[in-house]
């Protein structure tokens, strides 16, 4: 009959707890893990706990279980980092793809003397998409009394002035481009003993990106996000 591998022995509930505690980043010593896993150890002397912990974590099945537990935590950490990166990229996309026409409209109206004027009004906040809301940095609303004359009578009424600010599209585009290494400040090409230098400025990259339609920009950034997910994996 084949001899069972010592490291494959089953852990008791307290041993499992000690392993889980010891694998945590904030656990500094084996003794700390023992005190957390074995309630009776709270009454032991420090030397007793230390000796018990030393013996416990020398056992093959405990060492193997601890190694597996730490691998699991490291894997979770990598996944969390990848998720955080994707979330940041997504937030930058909301800003980079937002357009001011998503927030305001220009309406043609008749002013005094029948002169046509254009009035800018803000879209009802409740009607804005969640993506657009994420691109808005701040909104201020102020009430202001206005005097008008109708049928020869002077009247006063109140209007609301709306001031809003969008997050910087340029900064969002720069951050995305830098993350994906889209900016090439200087590229040297060696060929037959000569050096050719190609310059692509940041401004040229911005101009190229701004020239795209919203659909092209969205498709381009989605592709970059997918590329990033492949790299993170």
Tell me about this structure.
The protein contains eight helices and six strands; from the N terminus they run ααααββαββαββαα. Helix 4 crosses helix 6 and helix 4 runs antiparallel to helix 8 (214-232). The longest helix has 38 residues, at 60-97. The chain has three domains: 8-91, no CATH class; 100-166, no CATH class; 169-232, no CATH class. The protein is of the alpha+beta class. The model is unreliable at 186-200 (pLDDT under 50). It is elongated, with a radius of gyration of 32 Å. The strands form three sheets. The protein has a two-stranded antiparallel ribbon with strand order 1-2. The chain has a two-stranded antiparallel ribbon with strand order 3-4. The protein has helices at 13-23, 30-37, 46-56, 60-97, 130-134, 169-179, 202-210, 214-232, and strands spanning 104-110, 116-122, 136-150, 153-166, 187-191, 194-198.
Q: Helical stretch count?
A: 8
Distance between the termini: 42 Å
Return the string of H and E elements.
HHHHEEHEEHEEHH
Helix content: 40-55%
Backbone CA Rg: 32 Å
- Structural class by secondary-structure content: alpha+beta
Q: Major beta sheet, specifics?
A: 2 strands, antiparallel
């Amino acid at each position: 009959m084949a001899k069972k591998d010592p490291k494959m022995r089953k852990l008791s509930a307290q041993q499992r707890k000690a392993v889980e505690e010891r694998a945590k980043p904030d656990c500094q010593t084996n003794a700390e893990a023992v005190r957390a896993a074995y309630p009776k150890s709270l009454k032991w002397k420090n030397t007793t706990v230390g000796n018990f912990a030393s013996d416990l974590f020398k056992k093959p099945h405990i060492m193997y279980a601890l190694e597996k537990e730490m691998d699991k935590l490291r894997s979770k950490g990598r996944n969390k980092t990848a998720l955080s990166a994707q979330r940041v990229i997504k937030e930058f996309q909301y800003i980079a793809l937002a357009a001011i026409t998503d927030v305001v409209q220009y309406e043609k109206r008749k002013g005094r003397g029948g002169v046509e004027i254009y009035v800018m009004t803000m879209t009802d906040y409740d009607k804005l998409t969640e993506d657009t809301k994420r691109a808005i940095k701040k909104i201020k609303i102020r009430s202001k009394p206005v005097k008008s004359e109708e049928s020869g009578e002077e009247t006063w009424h109140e209007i609301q002035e709306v001031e809003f600010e969008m997050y910087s599209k340029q900064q969002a585009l720069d951050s995305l481009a830098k993350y994906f290494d889209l900016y090439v400040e200087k590229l040297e090409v060696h060929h037959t003993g000569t050096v050719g230098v190609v310059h692509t400025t940041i401004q040229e990259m911005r101009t190229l990106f701004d020239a795209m339609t919203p659909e092209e920009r969205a498709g381009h950034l989605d592709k970059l996000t997918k590329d990033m997910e492949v790299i993170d994996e």
